[in-house]
Write a structure and sequence with these properties.
Helix content is 78%, strand content 0%. The protein is mostly helical. It starts with a helix and ends with a helix. α2 packs across α5 and α2 runs parallel beside α6. It is elongated and about 75 Å long. The chain binds protoporphyrin IX containing FE. Protoporphyrin IX containing FE binds next to α2 and α5.
């Protein structure tokens, strides 16, 4: 029996490296990754909170843990994830109410989200972690 035309035209494999997304596509992927990353790191953050609230000694230990460069890097990553997710979340909600849906506005807001979240992460991370 002959194959249907639609099945014949299907690509044999999908080359992810050849796909070119608009900037909003990358910002959107990062929105999902940052949301998932924050969710997965919640136990770590709750552990830090629990340590800080347990006793004055626990609070001192938090200072020592947070002084470790690897912990600082993780916290900086989480700070950026939150800022990107927050800024992108506001953008998504605005687009949901039809604000900034035109192609040029949507491109500009996606670029703004990427730049603003990195800039805020550097400024706040520098002030809070170093
Ligand atoms: C106050 C800050 C936040 C805002 C404004 C916000 C906003 C949003 C919005 C609007 C969406 C839907 C995106 C869409 O429809 O494409 C979303 C998805 C999501 N958010 Fe948040 N969010 C915030 C904080 C968080 C936090 C703290 C977490 C994790 C602990 C989180 C985890 C997620 C996840 C996992 C998704 C699903 C992502 C996806 O399916 O692409 N969000 N957020």
């Amino acid at each position: 029996m002959p194959e249907p035309a639609a099945r014949k035209q299907r690509p044999k494999y999908l080359n992810l490296m050849a796909i070119r997304l608009p900037v909003a596509g990358y910002a959107s992927i990062l929105h999902r990754l940052s949301g998932a990353g924050m969710f997965l790191m919640l136990p770590f953050l709750v552990w830090l909170l629990q340590m800080s609230l347990s006793s004055p000694e626990g609070f001192q230990s938090l200072g020592a843990v947070a002084a470790h460069p690897l912990v600082k890097l993780i916290l900086l990553g989480l700070l950026w994830a939150y800022l990107h997710h927050f800024c992108m979340g506001i953008r998504v909600l605005l687009i949901d109410v039809h604000v900034g849906v035109e192609k040029s506005a949507a491109n500009a807001s996606a670029k703004a989200v990427l730049v603003v979240s990195v800039a805020l992460a550097v400024i706040l991370g520098g002030a809070l972690l170093w």
